[in-house]
Design brief:
Radius of gyration: 20 Å
Order of helices and strands: EHEHEHEHEHEHEHEEHEHHH
Strand order of the largest sheet: 3-2-4-1-5
Number of helices: 11
CATH class of the largest domain: Alpha Beta
Shape: globular
CATH architecture of the largest domain: 2-Layer Sandwich
Structural class: alpha/beta
CATH superfamily of the largest domain: Tetrapyrrole methylase, C-terminal domain
Distance between the termini: 54 Å
């Protein structure tokens, strides 16, 4: 598949920090597939599936270094030291992360550590779940009839708490669409912060679980009802949360649902009716 394409050479002693995308192996970049075919050692995260790892060389060394909230997880310092150790052994080390390594993936931290250690590295971007996962749910992050601004934020900081550094009133007032990573644990607090900042309780919200995979689930709700709807649904992380009028577009753009027989609705925002009335 990659024959004839000008792929970079994966040299011994190098570390490639690559994004594996939101889950569906079909969304891997060609550079990431090339890295999987070439690496001697692969240090991978919890969101990297077996189908993706099956693309590794049969003699490659695979090591799990996943982080999941509320569960035993590898410490970041230990992961970084392990990457450096393997590179200093002359191995081609692939650090494989779900989504994009530089979008809430701590790839920047690991790359800075490699610079300090004198280890050469390459960054391979991946499709972030905040974009690709929403696209599979039929929700565009931007649409000219709803928003020209979108904010991406994380639902918890390094302490595991709701980020105190976020200016929630400013985000609530300035961004028509807010896409939230790792937000389920603190959804009640996040909802309250956004509503205190002026967001409507009836504003549409969606929660996408197992995005892009065969067991993907999409919960459509509202900001005010989201915590109870989430509890009733039984959805657990990993999941993306999106708030804004773009959620209404799913009625027309749920292409995955259409494959399963869902009838799509034209003009979900009611713009044609408003235009005719005018």
């Amino acid at each position: 598949m990659l024959e004839g394409l000008p792929m970079p050479q994966f040299e011994p002693g190098w570390v490639w920090l690559a994004g594996a995308g939101p889950g569906d192996p079909a969304l891997l970049t060609l550079a990431s597939v090339h890295a999987l075919h070439s690496a001697d050692a692969i240090i991978y995260d919890a969101l990297v599936g077996k189908d993706i790892l099956s693309l590794a060389r049969s003699d490659a060394f695979l090591e799990y270094a996943g982080k999941r909230g509320g569960k035993p997880s590898a410490k970041q310092a230990d992961i970084t030291l392990r990457i450096i150790e393997l590179a200093r052994q002359g191995k081609r080390v692939l650090r494989l992360k779900g989504g994009d390594p530089f979008v809430f993936g701590r790839g920047g931290e690991e790359a800075l550590a490699l610079v300090e250690a004198g280890i050469p590295f390459r960054i391979i971007p991946g499709i972030s779940a905040g974009i690709g996962g929403l696209a599979y749910a039929g929700i565009p992050v931007t649409h000219r009839d709803t928003n020209s601004i979108v904010t991406f934020l994380t639902g918890h900081d390094a302490t595991g708490l709701t980020p105190s550094a976020i200016d929630w009133p400013a985000v609530a007032k300035s961004s028509p669409v807010i896409v939230m990573y790792m937000a389920l644990k603190h959804l009640v607090e996040i909802r309250d912060c956004l509503m205190e900042g002026g967001r409507r309780a009836d504003e549409p919200m969606a929660i996408i679980s197992q995005a892009t995979l065969t067991d993907q689930r999409v919960l459509e709700t509202t900001l005010g009802e989201a915590p109870q709807a989430l509890a009733d649904s039984g959805i657990e992380p990993p999941a993306m949360v999106v708030l804004g009028e773009v959620v209404r577009l799913r009625a027309a753009l749920d292409w995955v649902g259409a494959l399963a027989g869902r009838k799509l609705v034209a003009d979900p925002l009611g713009l044609r009716h408003k235009s005719d009335a005018g």
